[in-house]
Amino acid sequence: VGGRVDFQEAISWFIGVFDGSSSSSSAAGGVSLAEVYELWVRVRGRVIAPALQVAVWACMVMSVMLVVEALYNCVVSLGVKAVGWRPEWRFKWEPLAGDDEEKGGAHYPMVLVQIPMYNELEVYKLSIGAACELQWPKDRIIVQVLDDSTDPFIKNLVELECESWAVKGLNIKYATRSSRKGFKAGALKKGMECDYAKQCEYVAIFDADFQPEPDFLLRTVPFFVHNPEVALVQARWSFEFCSE
């Protein structure tokens, strides 16, 4: 076992394996370049080529799967548009009954609106303003701004914006943390650990560049209230291009 393996013996052994012989004795006169090349050709043809062929077939199968999935999604999307399908056809939806939302009402569930931010200088005012203008009883909504900004100037601006809305009577919380572990997802998770967050029945999440319509909660929360099996509502969103 501890003997030294000679290069010629190794080549001869590999050639014997591919020839069907178990002999490991070296050929007289040494190993020529032709024999080394012959061994490479055999390894390439019997080991490397089949492995590559299997990989190519696997890639082809996955490509076909992607094409089929894309075609299926296109057909479903076109069908939905053609028949005018709406979520209300499958899930019960009714407006929340009771007093006007401006007057407040305990029948409205508590909603936490989370906005994770990271140096969002261009859009922080728009997103915070849109969240604070959501049509919902002011005593039944909490806007939580989770600021992971590393720029002190931007962080100060975001905090001042939150304070300006708080002065107007909005229940808005400005939260920071010492590390950016998990990035924005980590910030959202950290925000859920706050005591006031645990009092909320539903959570609405908007990225820093999103501007929800004022009636967003009035249109989405009823799906949760009237359909206990529903755990997530994802709304349609679109791009808006503004020019100055």
TrEMBL record:
<dbReference type="GO" id="GO:0047259">
    <property type="term" value="F:glucomannan 4-beta-mannosyltransferase activity"/>
</dbReference>
<keyword id="KW-0808">Transferase</keyword>
<dbReference type="InterPro" id="IPR029044">
    <property type="entry name" value="Nucleotide-diphossugar_trans"/>
</dbReference>
<comment type="function">
    <text>Probable mannan synthase which consists of a 4-beta-mannosyltransferase activity on mannan using GDP-mannose. The beta-1,4-mannan product is the backbone for galactomannan synthesis by galactomannan galactosyltransferase. Galactomannan is a noncellulosic polysaccharides of plant cell wall.</text>
</comment>
<keyword id="KW-0812">Transmembrane</keyword>
<comment type="similarity">
    <text>Belongs to the glycosyltransferase 2 family. Plant cellulose synthase-like A subfamily.</text>
</comment>
<protein>
    <recommendedName>
        <fullName>glucomannan 4-beta-mannosyltransferase</fullName>
        <ecNumber>2.4.1.32</ecNumber>
    </recommendedName>
</protein>
<dbReference type="GO" id="GO:0051753">
    <property type="term" value="F:mannan synthase activity"/>
</dbReference>
<keyword id="KW-0328">Glycosyltransferase</keyword>
<keyword id="KW-1133">Transmembrane helix</keyword>
<dbReference type="GO" id="GO:0000139">
    <property type="term" value="C:Golgi membrane"/>
</dbReference>
<dbReference type="InterPro" id="IPR001173">
    <property type="entry name" value="Glyco_trans_2-like"/>
</dbReference>
<keyword id="KW-0961">Cell wall biogenesis/degradation</keyword>
<keyword id="KW-0472">Membrane</keyword>
<keyword id="KW-0333">Golgi apparatus</keyword>
<feature type="domain" description="Glycosyltransferase 2-like">
    <location>
        <begin position="114"/>
        <end position="236"/>
    </location>
</feature>
<dbReference type="GO" id="GO:0071555">
    <property type="term" value="P:cell wall organization"/>
</dbReference>
<dbReference type="Pfam" id="PF00535">
    <property type="entry name" value="Glycos_transf_2"/>
</dbReference>
